């Protein structure tokens, strides 16, 4: 374990900005880092793609895991074992040309395997495949006591379940074994359908089981008659070969500096959303595309988070049980579009009923909505508190990986297994998120 | 670069260094056969497994401390046991603490032994093999620090600068046998070796450095700055007259 100077390691939303006192680097899984000797609290840090403060550790030590980037084994049975700092981008580069695919992909490929487990990430196939954690066979966890525990549904089950979705609080994941699946092609047959409102969305979503991947983009600024309008995207792996996984290239475009704070405002975003909505000229269109733009539309723009300006942004993602007319989602969209806040991209999806092993796993049956908000101080926070109340009343939850502000009361309401989880937390591990929702 | 022209059998000494591992990956993706030498058996195994999963076959390893010069002949014999080598990359090295080198002569001597003396010993054995097979590439990771001595790291710089001169002569000799001799001069690369340095915009990732080294080997270059932008920077730095340079705090 090598000490490196505390370079700024933030979170993707760039709010809040909290600095660790030290960053150390885990390089070799066989040389157990002496966690006990480090001044706590400790937290693993991978790509920093969590949006809020769950990957931050103010006045603590971050353990940079990106040096643990080695593959360990890959069998004909699709079981892939690799170190925790390997990114999904690196894995795709290796497995796709061999006809394999990752079980779950989030909206960016720049996340580590350890991060994917710690946040129990989900993707466009949640309605079929469940979360990432459902495809983890086992992993090795290094506890601050120096113990190394191989955790699986059979061994150290409580730790296995606490670590999946456990926000890095149960110890340092050194390596993991995940189950991949075979695909005929990495290309995706995509269907794009315009919907005028929530009811139409729900009607289309009823067809989800017939498609491997589904997600909808929703215009969060549209009001009244247009409330909940958007574009539905659904697709399945193409039956014919479209592309043999090209080497991962960096983004073609990179945002070189912070945009002025007001660049993304209601006027520019409304215009952008209207263009997006009407660009789909026809009601329904189909095409076959490479998997990268389908899964990772924003990876093509490096550091797109800088578009929100130096104050950063908050992404709010909630899930609520489904009701016939959209229920709480309709109320949330109405509240957001009428709020005067700068709400950017909205993503709407129906989660499936596959259970995750994770105690603190976020996805559950219902509708999930994710919205970006430019951070504008108290008024933004007040609005999100209001949304929390709507979500709590509906019996839903808010995603910790994207959170920077939920209250301890909300956290406990959203994650009723929190007490069982807390018992498994490593005494030396913590995060700014955890201190905010639990220890205070 | 067509697949047929890519090196098929490659020896890498110091194979567990961050940069060497990335070079190994570039070869592994093309299905090359690799012979890896390094000090730690556990690290060697971890790197070998990674390269196997990425497509290298076969991958052999040998635990070697380059300071144990009596093992050099064994290394070279084993690396050549399965036939001719297309390329050999010497990537081992240490970055000593300059202040300690100034206090304790043995610190400076040890750095020179690892970076320079051991490398020269290995190069001597390798050069004769490559000269006999009349083809292939011998590559050594030197450093931009070897282009001009600076007060902040001149022991390291001297060890790498010495290599630069040795490689010039070796290149001149082996050119006539069709063997290419490549001096690699990385600048700041984000690796455990440079972990103690404050970061700056000139830092390159080890992946970028490794890919650049792979391309330089395959292109049979003589000298390659890693990344390329260090060539104009070092041209400027080496062009300053000594009476000016000695006044700077670099």
Compact overview of the structure:
Chain A is α+β, with helices and mostly antiparallel strands and 440 residues long.
SSE layout:
The complex is a heterodimer of chains A (440) and B (250).
Chain A: E1 2-4, E2 22-25, E3 42-45, E4 61-64, E5 71-74, E6 79-83, H1 88-95, E7 100-101, H2 113-118, H3 126-129, E8 136-142, E9 148-151, H4 157-163, E10 172-179, E11 181-182, E12 188-195, H5 198-205, E13 213-219, E14 230-237, E15 253-254, H6 266-279, E16 284-289, H7 291-295, E17 301-302, E18 313-320, H8 327-337, E19 343-351, E20 366-374, H9 378-393, E21 397-398, H10 408-414, H11 418-424, H12 432-439
Parallel strand pairs in A: 2-4, 3-4, 15-17
Antiparallel strand pairs in A: 1-2, 5-6, 6-10, 7-11, 8-9, 8-10, 12-14, 12-16, 13-14, 13-19, 18-20, 18-21, 19-20
Chain B: E1 9-13, H1 18-29, E2 33-38, H2 41-53, E3 59-63, H3 72-79, E4 87-90, H4 98-103, H5 105-133, E5 137-141, H6 154-175, E6 180-186, E7 189-190, E8 204-205, H7 206-218, E9 223-226, H8 230-239, H9 242-245
Parallel strand pairs in B: 1-2, 1-4, 2-3, 4-5, 5-6, 6-9, 7-8
Helix pairs in contact in B: 1-2, 1-7, 5-6
Fold and architecture overview:
The complex is a heterodimer of chains A (440) and B (250). By secondary structure, chain A is of the alpha+beta class. Chain A has a domain at 188-408: 2-Layer Sandwich (Alpha-Beta Plaits). Chain A contains twelve helices and 21 strands. In chain A, strands 16-12-14-13-19-20-18-21 form an eight-stranded antiparallel sheet. In chain A, helix 8 (327-337) packs antiparallel against helix 9 (378-393). Chain A is globular, with a radius of gyration of 21 Å. The model of chain A is unreliable at 1-6 (pLDDT under 50). With 250 residues, chain B is of the alpha/beta class. Chain B has one domain: Rossmann fold (3-Layer(aba) Sandwich). Chain B has helices at residues 18-29, 41-53, 72-79, 98-103, 105-133, 154-175, 206-218, 230-239, 242-245; strands at 9-13, 33-38, 59-63, 87-90, 137-141, 180-186, 189-190, 204-205, 223-226. In chain B, the strands form two sheets. Chain B has a seven-stranded parallel sheet, with helices on both faces. A two-stranded parallel ribbon of chain B has the order 7-8. In chain B, helix 1 links the parallel strand 1 (9-13) and strand 2 (33-38). The longest helix of chain B has 29 residues, at 105-133. Chain A binds chain B through residues 2-5, 7, 25, 27-31, 67, 70-74, 94, and chain B through 18, 42-43, 46-47, 49-50, 53-54, 192, 195-199.
